[in-house]
Amino acid sequence: MTTTPQPTAKRVPAERTHHGDTVVDEYAWLATKDDPETIAYLEAENAHTEARTAHLAGLRAELFEETRRRTQETDLSVPTRKGGHWYYTRTVEGQQYGVHCRRAVRPDETTPPVSADGAPLDGEEVLLDGNQLAEGHDFFSLGAFDVSPDGRWLAYSTDFSGDERFTLRIKDLATGELRPDEVPDTFYGTAWSSDASTLFYVTVDDAWRPNRVWRHTVGTPSSEDVVVHQEDDERFWVGVELTRSERFVVVDIHSKITSEVRVIPAANPTGEPAIVAPRRQGVEYAVEHHGHRFLILHNDGAEDFALAYTSADAPGDWTPLIPHTPGTRLEAVDAFENHLVVSLRGNGLTGLRVLPVGSDDSWDIDFPEPIYSVGLDANPEYRTGTVRLRYTSLVTPDSVYDYDLSTRELTLLRQKPVRPGPDGRAYDPADYEQHRDWALADDGTRVPISLVCRRDTPRDGSAPAVIYGYGSYEASMDPWFSIARLSLLDRGVIFAVAHIRGGGELGRRWYDEGKLLAKKNTFTDFVACARHLVKAGWTASDRLVARGASAGGLLMGAVANLAPDAFAGIVAQVPFVDALTSILDPSLPLTVTEWEEWGNPLDDPEVYAYMKSYTPYENVTAADYPAILAVTSLNDTRVLYHEPAKWIARLRALAPQGDYLLKTEMGAGHGGPSGRYDAWREEAFVNAWTLDRLGRA
Prior knowledge:
One of its GO terms (molecular function) is serine-type endopeptidase activity. It holds the Pfam family Peptidase_S9_N. By secondary structure, the protein is an alpha+beta fold. The chain folds into four domains: about 35-70 and about 430-695, Alpha/Beta hydrolase fold, catalytic domain (Rossmann fold), CATH 3.40.50.1820; about 75-120, no CATH class; about 135-285, Methylamine Dehydrogenase, Chain H; about 290-420, Prolyl oligopeptidase, N-terminal domain (Methylamine Dehydrogenase, Chain H), CATH 2.130.10. The chain contains twelve helices and 38 strands. The strands form eight sheets. An eight-stranded mixed beta sheet has the order 31-32-34-33-35-36-37-38, sandwiched between helices. It has a seven-stranded antiparallel beta sheet with strand order 8-9-10-11-12-13-14. Helix 2 (about 55-70) crosses helix 12 and helix 6 (about 520-535) crosses helix 7 (about 550-560). The chain is globular, with a radius of gyration of 25 Å.
């Protein structure tokens, strides 16, 4: 048994005063990342966690092996056509990362080529092998992977620490050689000019906010690159992309509630960006090019968004195309030469609507299951009669379809294989069942819950369960299939997703009612869902583990304070548990851009008091907390590692009778370990701890 790590007593607590309120933070020293004592403390925590979970080593190995056994390790994605090539990614058994490839389209070849058991396609060209790039590094991630319109150049960027700062390079696909062009410290997002002479990219400011779009001329040093747009309003961030038509480079400028789009003709990359519509506070819009017009998806007088268009040559007034329909949230529009496809959601489910060009007709694509997720996949071709889409549910593995826009026929190209489990039985979705249930929130609001379990799972409260939640940024936790989750279901565990306010499952109002000064609805909704699972006989509170990550980790910390009796355990991954301290510091990454999500506690005393009343770190008491596992990453730039480190330290100090563990990935970022096998081991660690709390270890 190891000794629980203790923050050193010689440290001087930090003190802050805002709006007449003085707060003492006795663990603020843990924010000093380059202090050897901080690293030693985190490593001691890791050793303590490893010792406290040593009895689960065999179960972790078993769970990892079940995931590996069920996964087709050597595999090949469905190739996507762009120009004269099919593009795809392969994985190879024993290798952590994907191999990015293409193969020339053969005469009269109209359907994607396939290979047996994920073997390389005959005549393939390897564009980038992630395993070779990752050699000698504990972490590896691709930021950009962008082939030029003529197929000659590949722009790609790499991150070897997890801090999401990438080095951008250009590869000559004709010779396989790297060009001398190299740009350090770039962010996500690139766009090529029509003739591939110019590459646009994004960089960040000192607060790691993407604030500049640059123009790089291929073959010149990056020191000669030109700033195309610099965004000085700290609420906004920028992005860049090339339209599907390859006619325009789009510079997207966005805050949480306001947007502005500027366009550059791709054939004239040195041209001045033209504003499609000037920013207006509270008005969001996105632009898609389609022939002579720009399609505008917007919320101007349309809470759940409407679709309009304006001239591409001289953007001006917006002409309505799809009017606003309350309760039907329009999320995106994809333009093809003869059809538009609108991604939407209604009644808590995603959907796709097809609009033929030049016709008043439109229709929604139908799907058979009561709970599912559907969306467009990569569709790089503008002139096409089919679109690629992805479909999944809690029991249906990820499925790739081609949809014929004329005949309305869906063709299944591939469903992700699920190999036999440890008992040798093939996966059969009929062995499992999914449900949509509804909880009643404190204010009478009905909150949807998605559930999946084995068909033989009892409904008398004896079954253990995991409830997952997020509830921020209008992000929807739509049903998804998970091979690793099967190991829980087959051990009798019910898996539930609480679609709480703050997410986007039920439209923009659902989001608005879970942010700013209504944020507590997110937390009380989750507790209501947990209580409902018990009341409805799905599980019992001493058999229920809650799980969430990032802003969902804030949720975990908040409900631990709000209703510690509702859970047998809580898993908080990269948790945003010291939200008030972070949102008070505008020098931190993301803080200023987040004020429109949480409020500005620096200037507004009401926001300050409200955030202080729910932020987990500030509200730890001597309560009887459930067991808590906090997982974080040292190089995370979105939720800094010291938030969960401080939280666990304060929990131990104020409620020492509890069982609290902190696990820090010392060489990863917000998404955790980068390699697939490492990610499986991380999931096995969490699931083993969860099963232990549920009495199923």
